[in-house]
Amino acid sequence: MKKILVTGGAGFIGSAVIRQFINETDCSVVNLDKLTYAGNLQSLVSIADNPRYKFEHVDICDGGQLTRVFREHQPDAVMHLAAESHVDRSISGPADFIETNIVGTYILLEASRNYWNSLDAQRKSAFRFHHISTDEVYGSLGDSGFFTETTAYEPNSPYSASKASSDHLVRAWHHTYGFPVVTTNCSNNYGSHQFPEKLIPLVILNAVNGKPLPIYGKGDNIRDWLYVDDHASALRLVLERGKLGETYNIGGWNEKTNLEVVHSICAILDDLHPQGAPHTQLITYVADRPGHDKRYAIDANKIANDLGWKPQETFETGLRKTVEWYLANDDWVKGVTSGEYQKWMKQNYGDRKTS
Ligand code: NAD
Ligand code: DAU
User: Has this prediction a pTM greater than 0.70?
Assistant: First the structure.
């Protein structure tokens, strides 16, 4: 049985990874999370009482706390998902992105490397540091072509530049110190438990509430969508079988314009949650995102050919499941949007020391 330290496990993708580990394997998980606005322990209630799950309320920028966590929990691997993740927020306030995504990754790498150096030979050679990153590090595509693992880095937003920096740090720690890393770069995820600042949950909830559906620019920017549980299964496979020092791109071969995505959500809601008029009438064109990347598309052949991974959900099945989840989980939605979650977090963790 392995013990995995997951950073950012209270977030959208991290919580999906943890639910899979606890429900589908015999691994133990330590969830290390600062609980920013995007971190939500309600996403883990289904597994929170499992004896193989532990939570540590820690900031990855706090090297002393990281050292304590490694000493107390003695993990076999780290999966690093903690990050500031929203492009729009990185444009209005880049500081947190530099701090967590770059400085935090550096501090985590050093704490992990010190711990790794203390292990006996067998555990040292089995140890893995898995860095979870994004396809946005490659910049923007024109009408044709795909991002491969050898595409040059050309990050365009403060978010993608901070993630690109963290990828380079991880690469350097492998090259210089022989630190055992694998890195993955994934396309846009969607699914349950995503904070409703991102396109798909924002549009679902606005449509249900009769609010405008904001489309940046003309709505013709293209994203390549992957259901979050498919991403989680790919991450588990790369952790288990990925080659040290290698990068794997993860994507679902699901390119859609933003307008197509919004129309699909509206059609599902017209069916599941009819409100008299078609939901598309709520579509509202708004000012474009500054520096808005035109198109992302992942070539996922390497992970398919080398590790045998392929996604289970089509965009149609995954999107329907996602809409159904948001319709059925009003409590979760209220918890993250009404400020109640913030109050709850303060009550539960506000006075608790992490040491
Ligand atoms: P998210 O914003 O939903 O969750 C991020 C989590 O990290 C939250 O629980 C937050 O509390 C935690 N966190 C933030 N700063 C922290 C800090 N300093 N110390 C400890 N914890 C901290 O993000 P997500 O969408 O789940 O993304 C997870 C990772 O996957 C990120 O690294 C992101 O760059 C990457 N990624 C995301 C997508 C996507 O479509 N969402 C696609 C590819 C890659
Ligand atoms: O590609 C992977 C990346 O996908 C991840 O690394 C990021 O963490 C994740 O947030 C996501 O980034 P995007 O910027 O692509 O996601 P977002 O949901 O913010 O936007 C998707 C597209 O929809 C993008 O072209 C901008 C557009 N958009 C977004 C919002 C929030 C709108 O048109 N209206 C909106 O209100």
Answer: yes
